[in-house]
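Service request form, structural biology core

Requester: graduate student, group of Dr. S.
Request type: structure prediction, single chain
Budget code: on file
Notes: please return the result as structure tokens.

Sequence provided:
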Amino acid sequence: MDPQATFEELLDAVSDRDWDRMDELSEALLRWMETGGFPPRIVGLATLGCNWHRAIATFICHLAKSRVWDARRRKRQKESAEAGAEAAD
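Core staff response, request fulfilled:
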């Protein structure tokens, strides 16, 4: 895995609001780092160290997963409301 490319793809998915891709990429990057893989360089100098970049990347992945969860929850609520409106007609 190329964590830098994965992170850049994750940022693209965020800007495109591609929820499935965001979920897939954030999960893949988290698994990569949890199994000892090196993190992507996120912000700041490389001299800040691996732990800095790992912490920021982990935060961003969890934030992306949270946005995915919220979007899917809103979609379910909308579908449920629409189904209820159709049933009332």
